[in-house]
Specification:
The structure is a single chain. The chain has 328 residues and is of the alpha+beta class. It has three domains: 3-78, Structural Genomics Hypothetical 15.5 Kd Protein In mrcA-pckA Intergenic Region, Chain A; 87-160, Pseudouridine synthase; 172-325, Pseudouridine synthase, CATH 3.30.2350.10. It is 23% helix and 27% strand. It contains eight helices and 17 strands. The protein has helices spanning 25-32, 38-46, 87-96, 125-132, 159-170, 245-252, 266-273, 308-320; strands at 12-15, 51-52, 55-56, 68-71, 97-100, 104-109, 140-141, 150-156, 175-183, 190-194, 197-201, 207-211, 219-227, 231-238, 282-290, 299-303, 324-325. Strands 5, 6, 7, 8, 9, 10, 13, 14, 15, 16 and 17 form an eleven-stranded mixed β-sheet that branches. Strand 13 and strand 14 form a beta hairpin. The longest helix is centred in the last third of the chain and has 13 residues, at 308-320. The protein is globular.
Length: 328
């Protein structure tokens, strides 16, 4: 179809209803612009062509009930048929489900899977989960994990649960703990990094984050679990949830996460590859929080074990390198 034959929609003004309150604007638009490539949606947000109450917003902005979202004209020729996950991918994600109740679905996300499609990725975890449970119309990502990070990923099954969980995240009332293997050593067993993070997007679309006074506040608490000869297994508690926060804060301390090709140490990564570590050693081990009383209350806590590759790396470190367990 030539450009002259393509039909172009008019400018749309979308009113945010109660059912979408607290949803990220990228997901809000993906839900309303069915079939439009995610890369295109992110592009019009980045260019400022999408306006909320006449103002520009980033893709991470969470819409509120009553917001008016202006969507620019979209060429129908830009629409695409969403891809279908392979049987192998469906089974891989199905096997990763560790818990499913009436509010949330919990995955132990494998490393190497993006949480959503876009930026050259046709299918992410959320698209696969929706294919696994086609009868469920309100499945939404509660939070994000980097593509190479494994571990606990929450997907809401009800809009009321999504709103409550986003409120907990905004108020820092969701406890998230990660396990990481970092290069080097600290003299202390506990460290707190309170350094602002600035996110930049390079020309190719790659996101790079650095410690910068112009950035957003970010706080990570680290605790050493085990010391090896030239690395440490640490627990990282996220107090805030910035992009690449643990990775950048660990590198800021001079002890980057092993297997990190973006913020890590090439020589340390090479040595760990010889032990079989071919991925980022960062795992979202657990999430805990209290449900608000207005939707029934109750404590929620879930954890996920390390995968075989990470466990095997630790076993090889234990067998071949002098180690010391830290008792705290």
């Amino acid at each position: 179809m030539s450009e002259s034959e393509q039909k172009k929609t008019a400018v749309q003004i979308l009113a945010v209803g109660a059912e979408s309150d607290g949803q990220r604007i990228d997901n809000f638009l993906i839900g309303h612009l069915k079939g439009v490539p995610r890369s295109y949606i992110y592009r019009i947000i980045r260019r400022g062509e999408v306006r909320v109450n006449k103002g520009r917003k980033s893709a991470s902005y969470r819409v509120r009930q009553g917001d008016l979202v202006r969507v620019p004209p979209v060429r129908q020729g830009e629409r695409e048929v969403p891809g279908q996950p392979s049987r192998q991918l469906l089974e891989r994600v199905r096997a990763a489900v560790v818990q499913r109740d009436d509010r949330v679905l919990v995955l132990n996300k494998p490393s190497g899977l993006a949480v959503h499609g876009g930026s050259g990725i046709n299918l992410g975890v959320i698209e696969v989960v929706r294919a696994l449970y086609p009868q469920e119309r309100q499945l939404e990502l509660v939070h994000r994990l980097d593509r190479d990070t494994s571990g606990i990923l929450l997907i809401s099954r009800r809009r009321s649960a999504l709103r409550s969980l986003h409120q907990l995240i905004r108020e820092n009332r969701m406890e998230k703990r990660y396990l990481a293997l970092v290069a080097g050593s600290w003299s202390a067993d506990r460290l707190e990094v309170d350094q602002p993070l600035l996110k930049n997007t390079l020309q190719g679309g790659e996101r790079v984050v650095k410690v910068d006074s112009r950035g957003k506040s970010a706080l990570t608490r680290f605790r050493v679990l085990k010391r090896y000869e030239d690395c440490m297994l640490v627990e990282a508690e996220l107090i805030t949830g910035r992009t690449h926060q643990i990775r950048v804060h660990a590198a800021y301390l001079g002890t980057p996460i092993l297997g990190d090709c973006k913020y890590g140490d090439d020589e340390a990564n090479r040595r760990m590859r010889e032990l079989g570590l071919k991925r980022l050693f960062l795992h979202a081990e657990s999430i805990a929080f209290s449900w608000p009383q207005e939707i029934g209350g109750g404590m929620f806590q879930v954890s996920a074990p390390l995968d075989h590759e990470l466990n095997q790396t630790l076993e090889r470190l234990q067998q071949g390198i002098r180690s010391e367990v830290v008792h705290t």
